[in-house]
Design brief:
The chain is mainly alpha-helical and 204 residues long. Helix content is 78%, strand content 0%. The protein contains 8 helices and no strands. The two termini are 26 Å apart.
Length: 204
């Protein structure tokens, strides 16, 4: 089991880093030091998907093939467009949109993480096993979403960002959107995988 570095993801990361470098240079000339700090933070975060992939390979953990690309795009949408380009202020739904992506893709990541880790016992039915994996994927995503809310708070506190715009109301709304997205995706995966397993059993 091995996760390969996606060549498209590497090219995308290089492109995003170049854009951020140009942005940083412009902000340095303009003496926009707060934005420079945000740009540097975004540049560091763009390396994270590749570090996570490396760690996953060391621990023999399976990630989705789209993990690097989706994570890179998410980071750019959240930090470059959201914070640096002020999309959080321009579009009221931008934050909710990102949390919905987080809630949905978190379930997909969880399904892959369970491969080779959680095994079906012979006496366990396909329906019960698939339901259990769906519940685990849903719970994993909600737990990750709660951690993300903590990171948003820390970003606002330490780096003076504006990710938590409405206090408790903003945090609660974000969690609700994530829960709904995770529930819909978990339900879809449950029926899709159960249907596939039943089809394979019929073919055998």
């Amino acid at each position: 089991m091995n996760n390969h570095n996606n060549k498209s993801a590497i090219g995308l990361a290089v492109l995003f880093e170049l854009i951020l470098i140009v942005t940083a240079l412009v902000d340095i000339l303009s003496r926009e030091w707060k934005t420079v700090l945000l740009v540097l933070l975004a540049m560091v975060c763009l390396i994270l998907p590749f570090i996570i992939t490396w760690i996953a390979n060391l621990k023999n953990i399976m990630l989705p093939s789209s993990f690097q690309i989706i994570t890179l795009i998410f980071i750019v949408l959240a930090q470059y467009f959201g914070e640096i380009m002020n999309f959080y202020q321009i579009f009221w739904w931008w934050d909710l949109f990102l949390h919905a992506i987080f809630g949905s893709y978190g379930v997909i990541i969880a399904w892959h993480l369970m491969r080779g880790v959680i095994r079906k016992e012979q006496e366990t039915t396909n329906q019960r096993f698939t339901l259990f994996r769906s519940i685990v994927a849903f719970s994993f995503t909600i737990a990750s979403g709660a951690l993300w809310e903590i990171l948003e708070f820390m970003g606002d506190y330490f780096f003076k960002t504006s990710m938590v715009k409405g206090g408790l109301e903003d945090t609660s709304t974000d969690l609700i959107v994530k829960i709904l997205a995770a529930f819909i995706t978990s339900t879809f995966c449950y029926y899709r995988i159960l249907k596939r397993n039943n089809s394979l059993r019929l073919e055998i």
